[in-house]
Amino acid sequence: MADAVRHDLVVRARRAWVDGVWREASVSIRDGRVVAIGGLTDEVDATVDVTLPDDQVLLPGVVDSHVHVNEPGRTEWEGFATATRAAAAGGVTTIVDMPLNSIPPTTTVEALEQKRAAAGPQSVVDVGFWGGAIPANLGTGDLRALHEAGVFGFKAFLSPSGVDEFPHLSTEQLHQAMAELAVFDGLLIVHAEDPDGLDAAAASPTEVPEVPAAGGAAYEAFVRSRPDVVERTAIEHVVDALRATGGRAHVLHLSSATALDTIRAAKAEGLRLTVETCPHYLTFDAEHIGDGATQFKCCPPIRGEANRELLWQALVDGTIDVVASDHSPSTRELKFAGGPDAAHGDFDVAWGGISGLELSFRAVWTGARQRGIPLEAVVGWMSRGTAALVGLPTKGRISVGADADLVAFAPETPVTIDVDDLSHRNPVTAYDDARLFGEVAATWVGGRLAGPSAPPARLLVRPDTGVAS
Questions:
Q1: pLDDT higher than 60, residue 427
Q2: How many Å apart are CA 89 and CA 206, to the nearest integer?
Q3: pTM (2 decimals)?
Q4: In the list 29, 68, 192, 396, which could disulfide-bond 234, CB 3.0-4.6 Å?
């Protein structure tokens, strides 16, 4: 039977991930929301009617909760126009922007408004914002003010961040921040590396346990400078603060499997702890990173192959909750700083960060596929799970009432990555020349096809504070 009201769009697929099951479906959309889900051939009155070919599946859009856009202040590294185009090209329909490396960092409401002004006219996917917790804004009222302005939580470093305007918290300040946030149930998201451990590794590198032989001695030395114990100790500090305050915390970009037992014990205790890892920790390994290959430099570092497999196991068993890109780009000059030419850097001085926003979903799917892990598990980690982390119940799923954020995805299509074909600002990525599986054929944000000519998407705030645009 034809629908009584004309819809803006209907998308039909023989395989759609709807309400947690694969099914044939027609997904009808009006005013940016899914309003009906029917059979594949149901008659629907719609302005645009799209049927996916049999090699494509219909998925909910990816929610990437860990993206460094860097605008304003370091827009030459990345900006909202290029970052959100890259997101859309990779099936990402929502990003949550980190409070650094922009200038000013998002540590006050005034700085948040500058971010929104920059993002609003340029962004082709929905954008939310994290606030920052630094020593200077503890106890000042800035954290509560940012919370009331709609940020999704607060980023803190426990070791130097790499930029002077975003200093790290001491262990005492970590407890202070978590206690302050616990009053209004704010979420603290933590870069967990212990500075004392970093100093000890720098002072006595020969005492650091052996890491697997890497493709190059320079990378092996870099991994030794940020050993497993540095992450494990910092996460223990986070757990202590949770126990003392009753707060909420999320560990960012877990790279070391040696911290998994600590995480499991904290969860078993009932502490409100969640954990993410990143596509690069699930894709690459230290054994295959050569001297000068600073496109692979990130902190904490990519570790050995055996460690990588333990991270995969922890995802499957639920110890690790979500996967997010940690897209942290810079200029080529910074990424290959100190090297003998424009394509080789010095691990001691090159900028640490992986540019992977456009490729994150495909990279994780490629690794999952190799291990016999189904596509819906990846959707759970990168769409439903990340949406739940930031508190966006209408995202990360295809169901009636949800945002019409959809992706047409061909999971069995092989693609060899050419960095010059990617949409982020600077042509450098650890995935250059990688062979991945999966092609993003179309991305809809709020029922509108995303792309350079699309109208601006929405600026998001926590649902209990409304939506600004």
A1: yes
A2: 44
A3: 0.96
A4: 192
